[in-house]
Amino acid sequence: MKKAKLVSCLTATAMMMGMATVATAADGDVQINVGSYTGAAGDTFSIDVNLASLPATGLTSLDFAINYDTSVIDITGVTLGAAGNTGAAAQEGELGDTLFTWQDTGSQIVLIWATGLTDSNYWVKNDGVFVTITGTIAADAAEGASTALTVAPVDRAAYPGGAANTQVVLAAVGDTVTTYGYSATNGSVSVADTQGSTVDWGNVDCSEGDTPELRVTIADVVLLNRYVAEDNSITISDQGMVNADCAYDGQLTATDSQKIMQFLSRTLDYSELGNQ
Description:
6 helices; Type 1 dockerin domain
């Protein structure tokens, strides 16, 4: 699906950049964190793209993409989250429709947000969900198939007739242009084993042991809770992500941790985890 007015938004961004007199680079990186989903072929999914460590004054321009594999998923929509709904659209009047635009190129989800307002109260400055991406897993996707959701520069020329774009644009445009670097936590969409034959439910850290009671421990709860809290210092393997979805709803949340805790306290039988 493609959203109209992409050219209008790019033009607005270019005009703002042209009006600024000095460009500077700012210290500190903006964090772009993309969520993950594990489900069955044909499932619908919803994934948040979160922003964190935003500059105090905010951003007027965001221009970046999420790379994905169209053979695994199909994108059906992108909506602004709380961090992107700053009230700028209403303040811009007729130009409000060009504030945010997105485009699915078949390999990238292009995301552009740009305002010409000088009042920083309407800039993107609050940490949280920037956009939510919705889609479906391909009906013929094989079990175990996966696509990374990778933050990247938009695959187009930086300007008409110019060289290929090589930058993710995160900028504040006022009397000067201040640009920001970024760090990314990339996400994924994966196809689980729908029969449960290779899923070790609750074993988030993929530890060894002859029985579930030996493999699934409080360490799995701690690891999953840190992931849900978006602790970027930890890593869960693809298999661990599948194992963690004990509520079997395609998302990793506190509900999955609660299921594991119920198993550890023996108020829930192991056979009741996942889709067994």
